[in-house]
Amino acid sequence: MSSGCRPQSPAVAKTEVAVEGECPLLAATFAYWDNILGPRVRHMWAPRGEQPMALSDGEVTFLANHTLNGEILRSAECGAVDVKFFVLAEKGVIIVSLIFDGELKGDKNTCALSVILPQTELAFYLPLHAACVERLTHGIRKGRIWMQKGYNIISVLSLEIAPIMELLASMKSHCVPEEIDIRDTVLNDDDIGDSCHEGFLHKAISSHLQTCGCSVVVGSNPEKVNKIVRTLCLFLTPAERKCSRLCRASSSFKYDTGLFVQGLLKDSTGSFVLPFRQVLYAPYPTTHIDVDINTVKQMPPCHEHTFNQRRYMRSELNALWKTDSEDDIPPETVIYTDETFTPDLNIFQDVLHTDTLVRSFIDEVFLLKPGLALRSAYLAQFLLLLHRKALTLLKYIEDETQKGKKPFRALRNLKADLDLKAEGDLNIVMAMAEKLRAGLHSFVFGKPFYTSMQERDVLMSF
């Protein structure tokens, strides 16, 4: 071999993932820095079937070089995961890379888990970026434990890569449009008593707003499910609508963590079981709406949801660390092994807090003629009112606490001054403010953890 010829790198191990429909993801790769050969791609996942463009092994290696070349002197805290976003116009691709440290064959290596999409899918992917990164990050947490114990990290990563490919494919075909025609929603009906009971609609919208705009709509009739999905999406921003999904008429999608609103069909027996782990790992609490029996249930508020989520996550990682063999606890199993924390699988509860904001909106919006722009304008005015109340609440808390320098102890005054005496009204505005300033719930209700029952007692005492 002449000195000018570089030795060929070994072929990249590849897994083809069967995905229904068109998957915009070109590939996902797991690469690491080899101290002798430099960046090496250990595994690649690609959707099976026709793709808009395909990547050769050489192109995958080139992209791995691009993501890992600047990381050899990486200085980060133990367990840190850095997210990097590359747009390579010359290759026509975008790359989202999660950089982390892990042990391979007893040596500490800098690793990168990357997803690669065509540059033309940038606008489609951006609203889903946070959801994808959060899911991949937790997969890496489990994968690092597997690497530390000498197990196969590829099996762990595959459990998250394949569902993300399915998620992106489903969003490509059934994503809620950015602009929703009010004629396709319940708010256009002359008499909502025929298609949707007024009390049910009020409770659904109120709970939907109390859980930061996150809802799961289940039912047997896809048209009815999608009508409620579109109705709830009216109360979301255009970007949040792009992160919501209609149900599929032929068969049901799986529940996906990170979406705002999603429609799901029941099976032939008339049931749909939500996966506990995925629901608990959602960034916000969720409302569960059954359009067949007109029931609305919701998860506990944000601070309690976050507490349960982090506690269960630690319990899960703890149990994985204590395994003696790779087959003891599959990484997707619900964990019960922590004696100090047994998860409550019944995480949905009745909507306990009544409100006046949504009640007044529903009463008044149906006084306007349907099929005109009046109802859309009135809805926009209602959302603007909620947004301004949320900004006012944030400013009120900021002033009372000297921008967070002291604890907040003026909840009773806040409710009176901002006309939020009904618990449901307070919950709705707090949820709107939570999305503007993450961690607000935990700050307002203090460091000691309040369960939903204790919190309700506190509110009722004012």
UniProtKB/TrEMBL annotation:
One annotated GO molecular function: guanyl-nucleotide exchange factor activity
Biological processes annotated in GO: autophagy; central nervous system projection neuron axonogenesis; endocytosis; swimming; swimming behavior; thigmotaxis
InterPro entries in alphabetical order: C9orf72 (IPR027819)
Pfam families per the UniProt record, alphabetical: C9orf72-like
GO CC annotations on file: autophagosome; endosome
Domain of life: Eukaryota
PANTHER family: GUANINE NUCLEOTIDE EXCHANGE C9ORF72, GUANINE NUCLEOTIDE EXCHANGE FACTOR C9ORF72
UniProt-recorded name of the protein: C9orf72-SMCR8 complex subunit
Protein species of origin: Poecilia latipinna (sailfin molly)
